[in-house]
Design a protein that fits this description.
Structural class of chain B: mainly alpha
Structural class of chain A: mainly alpha
Strand order of the largest sheet of chain B: 1-2
Largest sheet of chain A: none
Distance between the termini of chain A: 35 Å
Distance between the termini of chain B: 49 Å
Largest sheet of chain B: 2 strands, antiparallel
Number of helices of chain B: 5
Helix content of chain A: 55-70%
Largest interface: A-B, 59 and 49 residues
Number of helices of chain A: 17
Order of helices and strands of chain A: HHHHHHHHHHHHHHHHH
Shape of chain B: elongated
Helix content of chain B: over 70%
Oligomer: heterodimer
Radius of gyration of chain A: 23 Å
Shape of chain A: globular
Number of strands of chain A: 0
Strand content of chain A: under 5%
Radius of gyration of chain B: 21 Å
Chain lengths: 536, 203
Amino acid sequence: MATDATLEADQQLGRPRSFLGDLFSTDYRKLGLFVLVTSLLFAVVSLVVGEVLRAELLTPDANILKADSDGQLFNLHVSAGLYLFLIPAFLGLATAIVPAQLGSNSSALPRLSLFGRCCFTLGGLGLLVSYLIGGGPWSAQVLLDSRALLGGGVGNSSELWLVSFALVLVALISLSINLVATVARMKPRGVELSKLPAFSTSSAIAGLVTIISAAITLGGVVLAWVHFHQGGAVLTGAAGEFIWRHTLWVYGQPMVYVPAIAGLGVLTDVLVSASRRRSLAHNASLVLIGVIGALSLLALVQTPDATSSVFLPLTHPSQAFDLVAVGLLSLIWLATLAAGKPRFGAALVLGIVATVPMVGAGLLAVKAAVSDVESGNQFTSAFVHLFVFLGPLVGLFAGLYHWSKPLTGRFLKNGGGLLAALLLLVGSLAGFVPSIVMTSDQPRLVGQYADGLDTSWAHAVQFGGGLAIGLAVLLVLGAFLGAIVAKSTEDDDSKSEAFGQSLEWLASRGPTRFDVLPEIVSERPLADSELIGAKS
Amino acid sequence: MSLTTSSTASPALANGEGGGARPAVNRLGSVVVGGSLAVLAEFLLVACLIGAHVVAQQKTSSFIPEGAKLDDYVGGMIAMTGVLIGLTGMWVLHSLRAADGKYAGLSLGLLSGLSVGLAALCWWSMSSVGVGADSTFGGLFFTVMSATALIGLITVFLSGACLFAVIEGETVSMRETIWVCAVQAMVVAVICVGVWYSVWKLA
């Protein structure tokens, strides 16, 4: 097993780092980084496809795509955005950061993690390739529409999609098992649940939700595979629709909340660390993240009319408390920042920007409460994007800037992060506000709009918003890849987040000034460690 | 042949600074936690298939097609084999706690044999059901039974590997895997009873 120590020894002896060695390394940082970068590359695919779909909406006459292609691309946008980007990106970030947060040299099950990473890469590529074969995979539409089950037979592309999707699910389960086992078993002495860093806690919760949800979805994929191989004779009628809704439908899976759960953990750590003081309510933050995790499982017992919910992915009435929990967390962050001495770097600004889409989702809920909004239209699309995708996306970027040193060996430049934050803020507002104020009562496709309704300006603004988000993603991806490729800078512990509620360190090989980790006795172990070191 | 009850932590890792060493975090239990979570995922997957069978049975009129033959004897045997597998898993755990290598080997061997029997019973039930998979019942029946047979084979593999390790005397490193094997056996018991109840009892 390659550890930081062995890698460092290699470097001291002048041994070259081999690409293959890095590729199959069980070092948790490299594993996590590989998953993270792969998922960011998949994000580009999802964003490009999203923009093509936006371009299709610019005018009713813009027939860029055939009707069939629109459905295929919409599925690609969703599956690449959720299963190939957001969920694995957070799992990758957690794989690389959680052991460091706990003060450990290794993750609990590194080989399982490597297996998951290989499955993810193969599955992800296979999933994308399936869209290039024979008009795309019909079977992929089962993620969004039960009518896909009516299509009998399975072609090469559908077969490839089903197998690849199953591989991706196996990968997510493997990475999650490693994460939960790491949090459960790799804690140093004295660390109780209440003393765990927020991101470690949220990663464990997100991991558990992923294991439960992905296993059930995998069962659905097996059933779909049998169904299509038997000419569409298995999942039929009301039973087929029920089974589809509880296993395959994307919003019937608790997994859809994983980016939000992990993202809230990232934001809690980033904002509290940036405030340079202890969180005013650390335990409450952990409980609120746990509540959102528990509520996500209610998707498994969704109401019968869940598919027509205005607030997808909230498919059970009790899940409305998610919004309350997010609101309370935001208040804790705000109060902690107000009480501390915030350092306004890119991570903090991105963290603040990340709350904008989430607060926007809350405002949408209020609007829906006072006005009559129907499901399946632009309003629902805006809500889903703000709550499930955009907020966690910006949160992820905040995490990348906050943990850039332990991840890549370099600090990312603040300027790029601030520009990305600006683009994401503009993109969030421009991309979805028109959906709320102008076209909220209209269906997703312009061709189905009421006659005489001119919404071209609204869609032009939204197209621009999407471009801004895409640019921000490319900017962060470029900066991140550049930092990985560039030579590592010397460890600079003077910038250590001494008041962080974790044992994480900025040096890539661990806390250089401590030979032995002290017993953890408080909620801010690294700060205490430094005090102990100073006294001795 | 005896099982060692104590465990050893992995050696401390040097921090690369030439100074002291950071204490290695106790890795004991990682395999148990990870293995149990994997077994949980496996259980949920099969439970999802069994649930689909129950739902289809309730929501589909004339669910079982003409010509289908569900032999109660086979269903009962699957349930009984499952219960025996679960009890044997508890015996494995007991042997592990008592550090009794002889009974650990015996119970693991029995577990392997029963698991092979379970897989064979599932195969038998599929070959004798009398219909193909081209109906709601057929598709779900074959999927559920194939999945049950597969977890039977996984149990064979796991218990076989543990048995080999116990015979070879390398028990310390395999302790956690044996623990996971016992958990797997108990989950197999629950699944078998679930399969019997949903496929045969509710029919």
